[in-house]
């Protein structure tokens, strides 16, 4: 093989090596860009997606006290510890303002519980035990006979509603206002002070 043939062969090999090197660089850069795009999509769709925390009253373990009136003068007076949960599924803390949970019987206010200002950490559930005293007297319901009917059935149905306002902070700098609304109900068996049913919307 002549010198010219050797030079041509080396030139071909060098060119092939350069092509392989360029191909590797191209593949590496493409893979890096794809990784960056996937990271950006994950950040935008998962981490930066602000969700409203769930605000709930869970069933009390027991009704501490419960007294009811007579059929002629129906009333009820009860107290219990209401376990309240604030479930924050965001990738950042949820700082919320003080608020109140209002308890009603057939839309009539019977009591409330206060929730102090605090925060629920990221991906966690804040649990708060709040003392509740509920009272309804037939003297305040001259035109409503349903209270006597409910008490004679041995079941009291209560509703609880509340609104929790606060801010979710992600990556220590991105903030967004969020509101969580509670709308729950429970049925209480008077004779045993047991929670028969409970649910939230």
TrEMBL record:
Keywords: Membrane, Transmembrane, Transmembrane helix. The keyword Membrane applies. InterPro entries: Lea14-like_2 (IPR055301). The chain crosses the membrane at residues 25-48. The keyword Transmembrane applies. It comes from the Eukaryota. PANTHER family: LATE EMBRYOGENESIS ABUNDANT (LEA) HYDROXYPROLINE-RICH GLYCOPROTEIN FAMILY (PTHR31852). This is Late embryogenesis abundant protein LEA-2 subgroup domain-containing protein. It comes from Eucalyptus globulus.
